[in-house]
Structure formats: structure tokens, C-alpha cells
Amino acid sequence: MARAPLLQLSGISLTFGGNPLFAELSLVIQQGDRVALVGRNGSGKSTLMKIMAGLAEADRGDRVVPPGVTVGYMEQDPDMAGFATLGDYAASGLPEGEAYRVNVAAEGLGFDPERPVGTASGGERRRAALAKLMAEAPELMLLDEPTNHLDIAAVQWLEDTLRATKAAFVLISHDRTFLRELTRATLWIDRGMVRRQERGFEDFEIWRDTVWDEEDQARHKMDRKIKAEARWAVEGISARRKRNMGRVRALQDLRAERAAMIRRQGAAALSLESGQLSGKKVIEAKGISKAYGGKDIVRDFSLTVQRRDRIAVVGSNGVGKTTVIKMLAGEVDPDSGTVALGTNLAAAVFDQSRAQLDPDMSLWESLTSDPEMRVGGRADQVMVRGEPRHVVGYLKDFLFDEAQARAPVRALSGGEKARLLLARLMAKESNLLVLDEPTNDLDIETLDLLQEILDDYDGTVLLVSHDRDFLDRVATTTVAMDGDGKATVYAGGWSDYQAQKGNAAPVVPAGKPKAAEKAPEASVETARKSGLTFTEKHRLESLPAEIDRLTAEIAKLEVLLADPSLFSTQPAKFTKASEALAARQDAVAQAEEEWLALMEKAES
After folding, report:
1. Is residue 357 part of a domain?
2. 193, 327: one domain
3. pLDDT by residue (tens digit) across 2-39?
């Protein structure tokens, strides 16, 4: 049965800054749709979502929402004028007696509804805007980077809530895990065109690469055909003394078609130079403690950081993750304990608050005003890893055009500000990177590049991030903060931390087989006499052997990963083994749960 449309755009065209952003764009969002909206920073994702929400007007085209359908949009920078508290704003528009929905969302998203609007941070205001949308529960939710400024617990709450909703939604997010878990279709904005695939984000990169490969092949065939036709046009004159004008016109048409092919924008030219090697031991923290306002941030914490370690600090918003990495980097002194820094350290810092960027400066000034990047009296050059570069040329490496170079920083999107910060950071030689929420607002391709250069970086990385996929790709050690001063060190990234935390004290329910045990034959016989279906009976009999196999594989992988040299000598093998271990641990847990459920059904 066909699903009813909730929103339809037809023939949408929009020019922005003299350049066409969309041309004759059409799309339909239907009941039950769970759509990822993806594309590079600057491709028009947020603009398209505002058009879908009815908050921005296209130059041409129609937006149709059937009568009675409600469409909700999460504002990035909500106008809270006239509201005393975040809760007042979030509850505005709700029917009387429904304000409790705001409190439910506030608890899940981690903000205080009683917080005065005037003292709320940008992140708290965004969480209030998200709570407002979730409480209103429209039939179509439009969510633009909803996970920004959320800690992982809040992201997981939002993930669970969206998974359970009956509403349709469209998501813009850089969080791969979030998109993979929730979406069943993908809208891809690429050079003014919107393509749709009825598969979730899980398959996006394969689809994207296939489309690009086909484009490259078509372009190559076109070039060969033009070359052959051009050769005929020259040689055919002397052979026949008369041009075939129809064929000449066809050649002109081919050239026009080739010129109209829109080339893909190149990737940002991210690069890091570690410069002089630091000592082997980079940081040694012994028994450090820190408290603010009578609240313990960290208590009696010790950690040794070696060269090339990638240390991730995770925990809820407000637990003090930034304070911990600043103490480890020597920027903040502990109340007690010691932090010893190794030799030859040269640190570079990515600040989540973007405080290093003056919004009133131009991009040009933002680079040339940095004392470490200044080149003598030259106002048009910057020092990039020891070599002078023209300002515009260097900005182009980070996908800024010449017109943007003179524009104010305040005009940049969140992703563009993040790229400008990376441009400043990567101009300097360093051997210790302090990255505080570097993934916020970056598009997926830039995140891929950042991860790749961090893999090749000879220095050491201290990282705070709520992006679970990025943590898994980058971190070799995870420090988990629980909010009461306790910080626990785990090997590996986010998934490794979750597996180790979950397996610290495994509880085996009564009657449930332990990993290496088979279900008693008597129990299986009971099942045969029960009301189980034939398939369920067969599944119950086969599960113990499956559990045994998975357990044996887990044991082998744990032995492999116990080798301390594996990561440094064979990083690809280490990553593959870690992913395989996490997958098998999930599989054995699911198999055991399934066995228990079938046994309970059989015995009842």
C-alpha cells in the first residue's frame, strides 16, 4: 500500500551569492520515512532543510504540505526572547497539561529546564530547542545536527527515542553511528543535485563511490570520443576537401556537453607535521586531583602517556573532560598530585569553544594575525610548517575560495569555522595535539581525512569527542569519567570501552548456559514436547553449538589482542581484530538471550 506524502518539493531552484545552489530540485517525504540528508559542508543541506520547514523561500518551485500534517524543525540558533527559562521556551506551544513532555526530554538530553535563558550556553539553548521539538511530536521532524553539543548518553537517549517514534524524520548529522542506527533512506546533495537511495546511511559510501566511478568512466569515454572526432575534423579536410558540417556540429555539441559536466570539489588538503620527535614518555600524571566549587572533577588519577598514544577522554557534559586534558597538557595545575611533561614537546590546540577565532576578523586576518604564522612584514603570506605560503592559496587547501578570504569569520558556518581552526592548527609543527571536540560540524569526508592524518601522525593526541565512530577509529586508550571524581582507563576506543565495562562482572541468569556449556539435553527434550514451532525447536537445539563457536573465536581474538606490540606493528590487523571481537561479543550476548527466551517459552 502506498504511503501518504507528508511533504513535497517540486522544481525548487535557488541562487545563493550569485551561484546556483539548487536547480529544478524535487523530492517527497512520506509517512514512516527515516532519511539521512548528507553532503559536504556548504553543499546546501541546512538551506534545503529550511526550505522543507518553510523557513526559507526558494527562487522558484513549490512546497506542498497536506492539510493537517505538522512539520517540526529544530532551530540551530533559537530565538528565546521573551522567555525566562529554557523550560518556558521548550514548553511554548504545547497544549495545557502537556508540559511534562519537556521534563522527560530535558532529563534525557541533560539540561536544566529552570536555567535562565540569559545564562544558558549555546549548547544548552540547542538542547532546549531539541527538547521543544521532541515534546511537540510533529508528524515530520527535521533535525539539523541534533547531536552537536550532546554527550554520548544524551545521543543514545535521542537515538532510542527516534527509533521508537512513529513520526517520519530527516536527519543531518556527522555522527556515522547515529545515522547508521536510525536511517532507512538517504538523500545526497552533490553539486546542486539531490539523489535518493532507499537504503540507509550504512550503504551511502559504497553508493557515492559507485556514482563517482561511473562519472569518471563517462568523462573518460567522452574525452576519448572528443579526441577521436577532433582528429577526424582535422584529417578529414585534406582527405575529402570538404567538411561534414553535421559531424563538426556534433563535435561542438560534445565539447559543450563535456564543459557542462560539473567537476567534483576536491577534498580539503589536510596535513600534519610532527616536527621534532618528543621523548618516548610524553606525560606522566601521578595521583592528580582537581575540584571546582566543592565538586570533584577528578580524584587520585594516574596515567602514563607514551609517544604516538591517542588518549580519548569521555563522559557526560559537565564532568570535566576539558579540565582533565588541560591538566595532562600542562595548561591547568592539579590541586594535588603531579603532572610531568616529557622533553621536546610542541603542542597544538583545537579549542571546542572556537575562542581562537575573532568573529570580526576576516579569514585572511585570522591567519596573518597569528604571531606563529606571520611572515616578517608580508601581509599576504603565512608560514606553513616552515614554508611561506600565500594566504589565499593556503585557504584554498581548506576549501575556502578567494571571495571568502576577505569575509568575516562570523559569516562562516560551523563546519567552515572548524576547517579554519584546522588551518591554523595544521600550519604549525607539533608533536602533541590537544583536540577538544574537533568533530563538531565537520562533514563526513573531512572527518575521514582527519582520521587518516591522525593515523599517520608521529606525535601524540589528547582527544575529547562524543562521536563514537571517530573514537573507535582514532583512540588507543579511553579514559571514562563518571562525574563523581572517578576516572577509569580502558584499552581501545569507544566500543572496546563498552565491551570491557560490560564484561567487568558478567551476570549469568539462572538456567542460562555459560559461554562454553551446552544446554542440557533434558531441556531440549522439554522443548520438543512444548508448543514451540518447528523452526524454534531447531533454533533452540542449534544455539548451544553457536555459542560455543563464538566463545572460542572470542578467546582467540583476546589472545591476539593481548600482544602489546600488535597495534604499533600491525595497526590494520589490530583494528580488524578489535572490530571482530566487539561483533562476536554482541553476537554471543544475543545468542544467549535468544536461548533463554526460547527455554522460558518451552518450559511455560
Report:
1. no
2. no
3. 577 999 999 999 987 667 788 889 999 999 999 999 98
Distance CA 324, CA 297 (A): 8
Whether the CB-CB separation of 435 and 324 falls below 8 Å is answered with no
For residue 135, the one-letter residue type is A
380 φ, ψ (degrees, to nearest 5)? -110, 10
| Single-letter amino acid, residue 215 | E
pLDDT on residue 513: 36
Question: Same structural domain for residues 461 and 313?
Answer: yes
Amino acid identity of residue 544, one-letter, is P
**pTM for the whole thing?**
0.69
Give the residue with greater pLDDT, 268 vs 180.
180
* Domain total of the chain: 5
- Residue ending a domain, among 227, 260, 293, is 260
The whole-angstrom separation of Cα 261 and Cα 370 is 40
| Structural domain range at position 369 | 362-420
State whether 118 and 175 are in the same domain.
yes
pLDDT band at 516 (very low <50, low <70, confident <90, very high): very low
* Partners of residue 313 on adjacent β-strands: 464, 479
User: CA 64, CA 7: separation in Å to the nearest integer?
Assistant: 6
Please state whether 365 falls in left (phi above 0), alpha (psi between -120 and 50) or beta.
Answer: alpha
> Which amino acid, 74?
M
Are 33 and 185 a contacting pair, CB within 8 Å? yes
| 527-554 exposure pattern, b = at least 16 Cβ within 10 A, e = fewer | beebebeeebbebbeebbebbbebbebb
Please count the residues of the chain: 604
Q: Which three cell numbers, joined as nine digits, stand for 194? A: 539531490
For residue 306, what is the domain's CATH number?
3.40.50.300
Do 99 and 177 have their domain in common? Answer: yes
What residues contact residue 23 under an 8 Å CB cut-off, 6+ apart?
13, 192
Those residues whose C-beta lies under 8 Å from the C-beta of residue 560, and which sit 6 or more positions away, are: 566, 577
**415-420 contact pairs (CB < 8 A, 24+):** 415/41, 415/42, 415/441, 415/442, 415/443, 415/446, 416/41, 416/42, 417/354, 417/357, 417/441, 418/442, 419/41, 419/268, 419/446, 420/357, 420/363, 420/366
3-state secondary structure of 229: helix
Q: Which of 279, 320, 327 is nearest to 303 (CA)?
A: 327
The CATH number of residue 556's host domain is 1.10.287
List the single range of 130-144, 369-383, 394-408, 494-508 with lowest mean pLDDT: 494-508
Read off the amino acid at residue 211.
Answer: V
Are residues 176 and 36 part of one domain? yes
Strand partners, 310: 461
* Mean pLDDT value across the chain: 82
Closest CA to 5 of 56, 62, 76: 62
Cell of 204: 551511502
- Which amino acid, one-letter code, is at 344? N
Least confident of 29-38, 329-338, 382-391, 582-591: 582-591
Residue 352 lies in a domain: no
On whether the CB atoms of residues 409 and 366 are closer than 8 A, the answer is: yes
Residues 311, 242 within the same domain:
no
- In a domain, residue 353? The reply is no
pLDDT, tens only, 239-296: 454 455 565 566 566 555 555 545 555 555 677 766 778 888 999 999 999 998 888 9
In a domain, 325, yes or no: yes
| Separation of CA 428 from chain center | 26
